[in-house]
Amino acid sequence: MKDIIEGSIAVALAVARCKPQVVPAYPITPSTHIPQELSRIQPEYGYDFVPVESEFAAISTAIGASAAGARTFTATSSQGLLLMHEALFNAAGMRLPIVMCVANRSVSAPLNIWNDWQDSISQRDAGWIQLYCKNNQEAVDTAIQAFKIAETADLPVMVCFDGFYLTHELLPLDMPSQGEVDAFLPPRVAKDVLDVEKPGALGCYAMPADYQDFRKELDEAVRLSSSVITKTAAEFGKKFKRGQTALIEEYANDKPVALVTMGSLAEQSEMIADEGLAGVVRIKCFRPFPSAEIARALQGKKKVVIIEKDCCPGAGGALAAEVKAALKDAGSGAEVIGIIAGLGGRDVTLETLRKAVAEGSDGAWM
Amino acid sequence: MEYFLKGHTACAGCACALTMRHVLETLGPETIVVNSTGCMEIVSTPYPRNNWGVPYVHSLFENAASVAGGVSRALKKTGKKGRVICLGGDGGTYDIGFGALSGAMERNEDVLFVCYDNEAYANTGLQRSGATPFAAATTTSPREVGGKGEWKKNLTFIAAAHAIPYAASASIAFLPDLKAKLQKAASIKGFKFIDVQSPCNLAWKIPSNKSIETARLAVDCGLWNLFEIENGAFKLSRPIGTKPVQDYLKAQGRFAGVTAEQVAAIDKHARETKAELEKLEKAGLNFARFL
Which of A19, A194, B127, B247 sits most deeply, having the most CB atoms within 10 A of its CB? Predict the structure, then answer.
């Protein structure tokens, strides 16, 4: 049976059923409904909801709770994520399996509360796994998988979904029951955490002889997590009888032109594919970046059009840069066009996409 | 038993390292340490060494109080043992970490916060902090500009104004008082704050064998007053010192070259503070009821 439920509320409920133990959060549009709902249903689920004084305190409280062995979750958007910046690197460096939902939103200035991906894309080098969801069913399913991925890979995971387009959208969803979630997700088995029976130190300081090795290990862990993500998605798909996208998703990808995108833009893109204009390759997992899978999916293409809602000023879109690198490494001869669109909630209509595919030029803003 | 173990790389004479040692010796093995970035972190955990005989976590400079709150709540939710103490220098406590500290106090997290207060950003090279006293020279308030132009932030009172159950000032030179305060704080649920004045030989420009003497002089001259504020009630821990402030100033290179006007201002400040604190104790005002 499907429930008609708002995206944020659905994600909050899915998270609650994952039995987190400490949930610190600070409200920010458009993620606010997630902590509000988690606060409201706290008595029913028994976790400790901590209404902290800032997003920086939220991620820091999560770091402490996770370091002490608790399953932890928080949610944020935009400026809140940027305020967490320093602690995001720290959480990943300490290999803490924190799960965070990011309701994607633009960054200031100018102030704007609407959707794009500049917030989480700007945090791509923090060492977190980043998964971008296409719709709310995927956001719910991915939130549940995220705990397993995080606790298996010893890495924090960001579950990103588009602010307003998804967070505030009401659609029929399959909500996993408590029993189903329990069968999929066992309690966290914490290793090397704060324990008075086994004193140890977390968060050391490393001299030049050691520091780089820690960072290399982190890089390797994030790279290798693609197999954990894939395995977890397969297991989830089997248990819940719903196909899951792990790293990338291809839709009608049998044409000489491919549209590459992420998040909810994929749904509009599929409509373009239905018109026969282009196939769609959706990148769900942005970190680790699935270069090999993307190169394979785009093999033999004449033209690859990347549409993304982010920008690295002075260099263009982050997704385009990475897709171009992946294609170049694979020796692809495709014409590759990176287009930036939809920043700060600007509509990306079907017409925008048709135009992008037909006549978009590399580096264009639409 | 000692839980801040030998072999750390703190400077000879470091009073902050002594504070760590006595705090842990008093609180015992069921303690979990959350440490902000700073001297005590750097000297104790250069990988792969670890100087702590109890579980220890360091995250960042400015978030220790938030991390400690998270640890404390996680222990309760996972049913594990442990008393959470947060150790921060005055930089991580008075200044960059103040937001996190204030939030944790407002939520009354079950954490004992001990500030090892050496009145400067010692780890980065002896810069001015909110805890640096008036007229002291630091590398960012040098003698050339007259030393620090402002008075020390009154953090223990600010802590008490959060209506936390326990806030106190202490000194590494008055160990029985420090230990009694730690023991009392450890018996109380909720947020406890203790500011322990702990000289830095480099910042204060004092010989390494003069740390304790100098800390004692601060109290004897009425320039660092020992008190506690328990459930809002203010109580002096000992009579306020009345020795000439010059005794304290002359003992330290950071005050070398202070003007006669600055000395007079410090003297006036000490005498007026004494009068006000004595009035406050007598009046029996309740800090937790000032809302």
Answer: A194
ipTM score assigned to the predicted complex: 0.97
Residue B234 tokens, joined: 């203010």
Asked if the C-beta of A87 comes within 8 angstroms of chain B's C-beta atoms, the answer is yes
A259 closest CA partner among A275, A282, A276: A282
Q: Render each residue's pLDDT in chain B as its tens digit; 291 residues.
A: 899 998 999 999 999 999 999 999 999 999 999 999 999 999 999 999 999 999 999 999 999 999 999 999 999 999 999 999 999 999 999 999 999 999 999 999 999 999 999 999 999 999 999 999 999 999 999 999 999 999 999 999 999 999 999 999 999 999 999 999 999 999 999 999 999 999 999 999 999 999 999 999 999 999 999 999 999 999 999 999 999 999 999 999 999 999 999 999 999 999 999 999 999 999 999 888 876
CATH fold, domain A248-365, is Rossmann fold (3.40.50)
Residues A345/A350/A355/A357 CA torsion (nearest 10 deg)? 100
Which residue in the set A50, A200, A204 is minimally distant from B55, CB to CB?
A: A200
Backbone angles phi, psi at B166, to 5 degrees: -150, 125
> In sequence order, what DSSP letters do the residues of B101-145 get, joined into one string?
HHHHHHTT-S-EEEEEE-SSBTTTTSB--TTSPTT---SSS-GGG
Residue A53 has its nearest CB partner, among B67, B70, B99, at B99
Q: Which CATH superfamily is domain A3-240 in?
A: Thiamin diphosphate (ThDP)-binding fold, Pyr/PP domains (3.40.50.970)
Interface test with A, best of B45, B57, B107 (most A CBs within 10 A): B57
A200 contact B CB<8A: yes
CA atoms within 13 A on the CB side of B117: 31
Which residue in A60, A70, A200 is closest to B74 by CB distance?
A70
Q: Where in chain A is the domain with CATH 3.40.50.970?
A: 3-240
Cα gap A41→A47, rounded to integer Å: 9
Q: A207 vs B47: CB contact, 8 Å cut-off?
A: yes
For the domain covering B15-289, report its CATH number: 3.40.50.970
Chain pair A-B, CB pairs under 8 angstroms = 167
